Amino acid sequence: MKLDLNDFDKDELKRYNRIKNLQAKELQEITPRWAVDEHVDKCSHPDFLPNSDYIMVNLNLPKLISSSQFGELNPSKLITDDINDWRYVEIIERWGKGKFIDPPTITPHNKTKQITYIDGRHRTIAAYLTGAQTIPVAVHKTFPIENLDYLK
C-alpha cells in the first residue's frame, strides 16, 4: 500500500525524506547493532534471553537474503514509498544513534531450504542494505541448527 505523505507533519516528513535520500555510501556507514551476546540486556523480547526456547545463530546475510521469502518487500531497495517504510526509518535512525535492535526470528524449511520470518523482515533487509555480511537470527531450539550450515 502506498504511503500518503500528506498524512504526516513537517518533522515526520523530514525524518522520512532524510532516510529515503540516503545514498548507498551513507547507508553503508551505518553499522547494524544487535541485542545479542554481551548486549542481550538491551533485548526487548523475552524469547531471546538466555535459557529461552530460542538460540542465536550467526548467518551469512547475502545467503540469507537469497533464501528468504520477503512477500511484498523488496530486499534491493530500502524506501519504496510503501506504508511499511516507516519501519526502515525507525531501524536506520536507531542504528544511526548507536542503539541496539532485537535480531530477526526465522523458521527454516528443511525441504525447500527457504526461510520464513516470524519477525524481522525489515531489520534483515535494512542490515543487508548497509552492507553487513553477517546477521544474528533467532531460531527455535527444536530446529536442527546443522541444517542451516548452507547459510553460514
Give a short synopsis of this structure:
Helix content is 28%, strand content 16%. The chain has helices at residues 10-20, 24-27, 61-67, 85-96, 121-129, and strands at residues 54-60, 105-109, 114-119, 134-140. Helix 1 packs across helix 4.
Mind describing the biggest β-sheet? 4 strands, mixed
Low-confidence stretches: none
Number of strands: 4
Shape: globular
Number of helical regions: 5
The amount of beta strand, in percent, is 15-25%
Strand order of the largest sheet: 1-4-2-3
Straight-line N-to-C gap: 34 Å
Our Rg estimate from Cα atoms comes to: 16 Å
SS class: alpha+beta
Number of domains: 1
Percentage of residues assigned to helices: 25-40%
- What is the string of helix and strand elements? HHEHHEEHE
Question: pLDDT average, as an integer?
Answer: 92
What does this structure look like?
- There is one protein chain.
- With 152 residues, this protein is an alpha+beta fold.
- The chain has helices at residues 10-20, 24-27, 61-67, 85-96, 121-129, and strands at residues 54-60, 105-109, 114-119, 134-140.
- Strands 1-4-2-3 form a 4-stranded mixed beta sheet.
- Strand 2 (105-109) and strand 3 form a beta hairpin.
- Helix 1 packs across helix 4.
